[in-house]
Amino acid sequence: MMRLILADLRRLWLGAAVVLVLVALATALGMAVTLQERALRLGSARAADSFDLIVGAPGSETQLVLSTVFLQPSPLPLMKGDVLARLAADPRVAFAAPVGFGDFFGTYPIVGTSSDLATDAGHRPLAEGRLFAQTHEAVAGAGTDLRVGDIIHPMHGRPDQSGSVHKEAAYRVVGRMAPSNTPWDRAILVPIEGVWAVHGLHAGRHQEHEGEEPDSHDGDEPSRQIHQSGGWAADLPGLPAIVVKPKTIADAYRLRAAYRTDSALAVFPGEVLTNLYGTLGDARTVLALVVTGAQALVGAAIALIAIGHVSQRRRQIGALRALGAPRIAIFGIVWGEIFALVAAGITAGLGLAYLAARLISAEISKGNGVTLPVAFEGSDASRVLALVAAAGLLAAIPAALAYRQPATAALRH
Amino acid sequence: MLSLALSDVSVSYPGLAEPALFLSDLSITAGERVAVTGPSGSGKSTLVNILTGLDRATRGSIVWQGTDIARLSEGARDRWRYQNVGLIMQDFHLFAGLSAIDNVLLPARLRLDADNALKARAASLLDRVGLGGRDQPIATLSRGEMQRVAVARAVLRRPGILVADEPSASLDAASGAVVADLLDTLSREDGTTLIVVSHDDRIVNRLDRRIHLIRGRIHPDESSSS
């Protein structure tokens, strides 16, 4: 029976190839959406893992998380610098690290922070070199092409806009971070004091909004020692965000409650992302419906092709019956041929979906540094089985019809 | 070999005023070799169809060696045909993409019946009909060779009845003669009851008896026994 099926598929290879490609594309379409959505969800959740609590100025929670976790280049409102001092002194806090954005080197964002965030308070060693100790020193992310010893001049503003280069300011790369598979791999970490210095900001002076031109540049001032772990002065310039490491989970919740005030907004990144997924979930549902509709149309087209295929083969089926082939053999040949095609299409579609999702993820990762893990899960197996079962049922229709026609009529056809 | 007793058989089709076939009585003894002749539309193919169980008569009985196939279900008729009838058709009905020997063995394989002995007989039959290249794809054979493969397929299981419907109609004279020889020889060897629908006198004249049909009925003047 298999020989007859294979011989038939070889003989009608063009039609078989069309069916296979149709099924593969329909499968790939649905599966790629699932794989990509999952990869985005997992990748973004992993990127947010090391950010327990983020405190920023009141405004959009989503933007605060996107800018801090994913380093999305959007201006954030600034909160008063004394929030950092209060948080650093809070006994519920393991560390509170400032985060300041706004400068770039090429497409790499330069992030001003403290040693606590760069090393997760000593828990994450550098891959190479040492941590910054002076205002004009930098640590490069694992995804940058910078080497220890390189000198970089920061550019103010977003890379896609014509920003001005701080020619008088320079950072020397003194270390490289270990890979974290997050957008921070593409970042260049510098001391927050360095960022303030480049923008002419000193303790006690702050601007209304980050991104505005400072009154003066003190970028040519000599490099000096930076703040080490511990307390911060209260008269710091305004900050877009502070990453907080609470000592306990209970402390995290208490801190979030305490810093949701008129002057500060504390958020759990995981919670914000979950809300975001909820919003995107609606779009995903719509997309899934569109995909299901497309798959149903392809399914109907395949059913038509299959019935047409059987119609074309009426003489062959009639001959098989004339030669005494049993009903089950006729059913098996027709069913097996259609099912083999559809099953091969589904298999090819799964491979295609995986490949497409990997390519898209790689492209996204290249752009923002987030590693998007593309992987099949157990739930996919039930979906694939459902598809295969549907294919089996669909193939049974023409297979059942094949035996219903009288052999003599089939022979005359 | 099987004998046939056919009585009061008629085959009618909707829209036709007269039956396509009406036979009050017909007997064929076991091992008899019969030619069925008649003009186009006389009911020859209809007769073949009901004799082989491919079609069901509207009424009457068709008893092959005690089995009235008119009373069998469709599935049972298919099984009976596989066990008792070797069928050779005008258009060969071979399966492109399969080799000569795969075509010969196909009906047995579909019944999960192709044991080593049958495979050996298939190879020997192909040698016998002059096709040494048993693995040769069907598509590369001439029409005469294709019909010889069909003959080998029909006699593979040594059926009791061999039915050939216009076996030489689509062949040139030389190929037709070869096929006629094969039918004659192979049916004689096994004593098979042979029924051949043909217009080809070279085949008809070799057979024991002629049944001539006109408008669905046996025409006694044209029918004969040798």
Which structural traits does this protein have?
heterodimer; A: 413 residues; alpha+beta; twelve-stranded mixed β-sheet; 12 helices; B: 226 residues; alpha/beta; seven-stranded mixed β-sheet; 7 helices; 11 strands; globular
Quick overview:
The complex is a heterodimer of chains A (413) and B (226). With 413 residues, chain A is an alpha+beta fold. Chain A has two domains: 2-45 and 276-412, no CATH class; 53-267, no CATH class.
Polypeptide structure, described:
The complex is a heterodimer of chains A (413) and B (226). By secondary structure, chain A is α+β, with helices and mostly antiparallel strands. In chain A, 52% of the residues lie in helices and 13% in strands. Chain A has 2 domains: 181 residues, no CATH class; 215 residues, no CATH class. In chain A, a hairpin with a 2-residue loop joins strand 2 and strand 3. Chain A is elongated, with a radius of gyration of 31 Å. The model of chain B has no long low-confidence stretch (mean pLDDT 89). In chain B, the strands form 2 sheets. In chain B, strands 3, 6, 7, 8, 9, 10 and 11 form a 7-stranded mixed β-sheet that branches. A 4-stranded antiparallel β-sheet of chain B has the order 2-1-4-5, with helices on one face. In chain B, strand 7, helix 6 and strand 8 form a beta-alpha-beta unit. Chain B is built from 7 helices and 11 strands. Chains A and B meet through helix 1, helix 9 and helix 12 of A and helix 2 and helix 3 of B.
Report the helical percentage of chain B: 25-40%
Name the helix and strand elements of chain A from N-terminus to C-terminus, one letter apiece.
Answer: HHEHHEEHEEEEEEEHEHEHHHHH
The biggest chain-chain interface is: A-B, 24 and 25 residues
Strand fraction of chain B = 15-25%
Could you give a short account of the major beta sheet of chain B?
7 strands, mixed
Assembly classification:
heterodimer
Report how far the terminal alpha carbons of chain A are from each other: 23 Å
SS-based class of chain B: alpha/beta
Order of helices and strands of chain B: EEEHEEHEHHHEHEHEEE
